[in-house]
Specification:
Length: 304
C-alpha cells in the first residue's frame, strides 16, 4: 500500500524499485524556528548499523530520485533520504521564505530530531550545493561529505529573471510539462533508454502537491545557491568524495576537477559511461564507492 499523503498518480509507477521506495516514504512533524507550526517532512529510512547516510536530492525533485541507490546503501548502513523544504512531498507552509537559508535550517532540525549523530551527507546536483552549505554551517553534524555531479560552482538560476507576474506562473507551468521534464531527463542520462515512462512519473509525482508552484517561485526568487568561492570550500575539513559521470551533459566535467582542487581532503572518482545522474544510471558502482568511502578511516590515493 502507498502512503495516503502521496498523489493518486503514484499508482502509475511500474518499476519495482520505484514502487518499493514510494511505499516506504514516511512523514515526521519537524519543529523549526522558521515558523510557529511544525513542518510535516517526508523521508525514507532503511537499513541499520554503520555511520548513518543521508541522501539529498536535486532541484525540483524528491526522495524518489534515490530509488535505485538507497536500497543498495542500506545493505550496510542506516540510510536516509529526505525531501528538502519546498521540494518533494514535504509540506510547503504559507509564511515560510523558501531559500537556501531556510533549507539548511529545516535540514538541521530534521537531523537533530531523527538522526542525532554525525552522518555521511550525500548531495546530488543541487543537493550537492545544499550539502556543502549545510556542512559549512553545521560541521558537527557531518562526518563525511559525498558530492554527486554537484552544483555549487555556478550561482543563480536562469529561471530567476522570469519570476515576476505573470511570467512566474508561465515558468512553473513550463516546468510542469511532462514533455519538458522528459527532455531534461534524457539530457541527464548517457543511456537515454533509462529515461523511461516510470522515471518520468517519479520525476513528476510531486507536482500536484499543495503550493508546489508558489514554493518553486519563492526559492528561485531567493537567488538559489550562490557559487561557493574556493576560499570558502577550503574551509571544509571533512573527508570528501566527489563522484562524477564522465559524460555529464548538464554540468560538464570541469567542475569535478575544480571541486577536487578546492576541497582539501577530497578524492575524485569518475563514473564510467555515465551522465549527470550516476545514482540512477550506475547505482551499483555509485553505491560501492560510497560504501567503501564510509568504511575508510583515511582517504586512499586520489583519481583526477
Amino acid at each position: 500500500m502507498f502512503p495516503n499523503f502521496l498523489p493518486s498518480t503514484v499508482t502509475q509507477l511500474t518499476e519495482p524499485t520505484s514502487i518499493a521506495l514510494a511505499q516506504s516514504i514516511q512523514t515526521q512533524a519537524i519543529a523549526t524556528p522558521l515558523i510557529n507550526l511544525p513542518i510535516t517532512t517526508s523521508y525514507v529510512r532503511q537499513g541499520s548499523g554503520g555511520t548513518p547516510i543521508l541522501l539529498i536530492h536535486g532541484f525540483d525533485s524528491s526522495v524518489l530520485e534515490f530509488r535505485r541507490l538507497l536500497p543498495l546503501l542500506a545493505q550496510e548502513n542506516e540510510t536516509w533520504a529526505v525531501d528538502l523544504l519546498g521540494f518533494g512531498f514535504t509540506d510547503r507552509l504559507a509564511g515560510i521564505q523558501f531559500s537556501p537559508l531556510a533549507i539548511k535550517t529545516h535540514l538541521y532540525f530534521f537531523w537533530k530530531t531523527l538522526i542525532q549523530e554525525p552522518m555521511i551527507l550525500v548531495g546530488a546536483s543541487m543537493g550537492g550545493a545544499a550539502a556543502i552549505d549545510f556542512t559549512l554551517t553545521y560541521p558537527e553534524a557531518v562526518k563525511k561529505l559525498v558530492l554527486i555531479d554537484s552544483a555549487g560552482l555556478r550561482g543563480g538560476s536562469p529561471l530567476a529573471k522570469l519570476m515576476f507576474p505573470p511570467l512566474d506562473a508561465w515558468a512553473t507551468g513550463f516546468l510542469q510539462s511532462l514533455k519538458v521534464r522528459d527532455r531534461v531527463a534524457r539530457a541527464a542520462y548517457k543511456n537515454v533508454s533509462l529515461a523511461s515512462v516510470d522515471a518520468l512519473y517519479c520525476a513528476a509525482l510531486h507536482l500536484t502537491m499543495s503550493n508546489w508552484s508558489q514554493a518553486l517561485i519563492g526559492f528561485t526568487k531567493s537567488g538559489g545557491y550562490s557559487a561557493f568561492r574556493f576560499k570558502r570550500l577550503a574551509e571544509i575539513q571533512q573527508q570528501a568524495l566527489i563522484l562524477w559521470g564522465d559524460s555529464d551533459k548538464i554540468l560538464g566535467t570541469e567542475d569535478a576537477k575544480r571541486f577536487k582542487r578546492a576541497i582539501p581532503h577530497s578524492q575524485l572518482i569518475w563514473i564510467d559511461n555515465c551522465g549527470h545522474v550516476p545514482h540512477l544510471e550506475q547505482p551499483q558502482s555509485t553505491a560501492q564507492y560510497i560504501l567503501k568511502f564510509s568504511r575508510e578511516e583515511k582517504l586512499n590515493s586520489v583519481s583526477c
